[in-house]
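User: Quick one: structure for sequence A, then sequence B.

Assistant: Sequence A:
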Amino acid sequence: MISIQKPEDLISVSLYNIFSFRKTDSEFYDLVSNWNKKIVLYVKPFYELTIIFEDDSIKFQIGSTDKYHLKFIIELQTFLDLAYGRIGLVSAVASGKLKIKKKYKLGTLLRFYKIFFNSLDKVVSNPVNNYYELKTDSR
């Protein structure tokens, strides 16, 4: 099973919920385990967040690192458009709404796509069951 660091900020809370949805999925485990990559996600107008895939864990670090493998620069609205399928990944890159640094590392890019964007698609397909937990003991 993949361990995911407890989030400390807004963006990592969202990513934690997205990744936690597939935490017990064997396909997700195969993609994440022993990958050892650092991906920087910069959601404008917020801040940069480094996602660290290391052995069987996913960690979050506020800020960027010089030794990243991929860096995504995206506006919040474009991020939501990608999540809800209003725009595709290729058209977002082609229109300049999504900028990817070191995109020549095609294997890393495709693997992160399978990890993150496929998880995002599954969460968005049924957000009540896949993302939010209903608290039955609250009033």
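Sequence B:
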Amino acid sequence: MSERVYRKTATIKATQWFKMGDHPAVEPYYKDGHTSDPHGKCGWVETLEGGHIVNPGDWIATGVQGEHWPIKPDVFAATYEEVQSGGHHP
């Protein structure tokens, strides 16, 4: 029996994050009630698996059910490409 691998693709919305205010789902990064990043460079996003630190340059993806997750820039570039409105590639 041969093994088969399938990939189900989905269109996502994504915003590259650099600072607070770039994406509404990203909040200031706090630990133990105090900011863990005194310079305000990192953020925090709640995902389906728990919270994740967001670094400047990370992409914040929004899935089909409104869930969010961070993606490192190199992984984003290797995995996704922009789709023009109407579903056509650039």
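The CA atoms of residues 29 and 37 lie 7 Å apart. Helices lie at 73-79.

User: Thanks, that's what I needed.
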